[in-house]
Amino acid sequence: MSGADAGTPALRVTISDVAAAAGVSRATATRALKGEGRFAPETQERILEAAERLGYVRNTMAAELAAGRTGTVGLMLRDASNPAYGLLFSRLQEEAHQSGLDLVTVTIGADEQGAKQVNALHRLLGMRVAGLIVATGGISAAQLEPFADQVPILRAGRVESAGRIHTAHYDDEGHGRLLAEHIVALGHRTVVVLAGSPDASYPEHLRALAMQEVLTAAGVAVTMISAGARPEDGVHEALAAVRAGATAVMCASDYRQLAVMRAARAAGLRVPEDVSVTGCDGILPGADLLGLTTLRIPVEAVAAAAVETMQQLLTADEPEMLVRRSFTGTLVSGSTAAAV
């Protein structure tokens, strides 16, 4: 290869190249590779052989754009380094593949706000996606609803009150109630509830309110701590309440639960002998080995419902009624909460 050749990027193989190599028209090559039309077996074989030899790959997105719409669904996903979002992403991909849908994904870090969220939304819509699945709370209903006339929009994982956004979501309030009922059954009478503020984590906020409702109805003294987004936020206040007599700390996520357990150990407190600690999510690797008392959220069911619902929305002859599908997880009793 000459120096000039080495510095020249390879040209992309086009359908015209395939047609020329096979000795047919561009239209014939296009129809043959799409599986359309009827051709002599030797013609079909010659076209396929030329495409394979030249390394031709059909630009499906461009073809669908030319037709005015793609068969691809956009996915806005929160940072997949979080195990719950990582599992949701993999399950959505698997369900979409089995259903014949293609997903194009934009991942948004948990700390990104405002313009970056909107830009990510616009990038997906600019690809003329057929539908949009939103698996992040970082973009609001007010930012999504203006596009609901263009494509069906479904929020996966999180509840949504907006009147034009479909959902397949976790029953966060139900999860909070199940965990609180477990703590009440264990006999705890003074409990701390530690969760993110509504701005930090709306699902955690919903879980915490449900916990408070059940605990208060059972006559339990409750200390509510509304914290920031970091797992360690609010932990100092929670342990102060334990020193003042609380026997359990109910955390609205497993990450917060681990932060409380680490701080308790550093303070010389034993879990669950000195303080019971619960979490919620049940997705953390090794949660079973740690014996976490938590609630396993139904990621698989939500992913399956999200893809199934989106497929129904895309194939409906008439606009579908608003779809709201809620899924409740399973209590994991574990060993970090004990009777008193």
Task: Characterize the structure shown.
Keywords: DNA-binding, Transcription, Transcription regulation. Pfam families: LacI, Peripla_BP_3. With 340 residues, this protein is an alpha/beta fold. It folds into three domains: 15-58, 434 Repressor (Amino-terminal Domain); 69-171 and 299-327, Rossmann fold (3-Layer(aba) Sandwich), CATH 3.40.50; 172-297, Response regulator (Rossmann fold). Helix content is 43%, strand content 18%. The chain is built from 14 helices and twelve strands. It has helices spanning 3-6, 15-22, 26-33, 41-54, 60-66, 83-99, 115-126, 141-144, 172-185, 202-217, 235-243, 254-266, 287-290, 299-315; strands at residues 72-78, 102-108, 131-135, 153-157, 166-170, 190-196, 221-227, 248-251, 276-278, 294-296, 324-327, 330-332. Strands 2-1-3-4-5-11 form a six-stranded parallel β-sheet, sandwiched between helices. Helix 12 links the parallel strand 8 and strand 9 (276-278). Mean pLDDT is 88; it is low at 1-10 and 65-69.
First-to-last CA distance: 79 Å
The CATH homologous superfamily name of the largest domain equals Response regulator
* Oligomer state of the chains in this structure: single chain
Order of helices and strands: HHHHHEHEHEHEEHEHEHEHEHEHEE
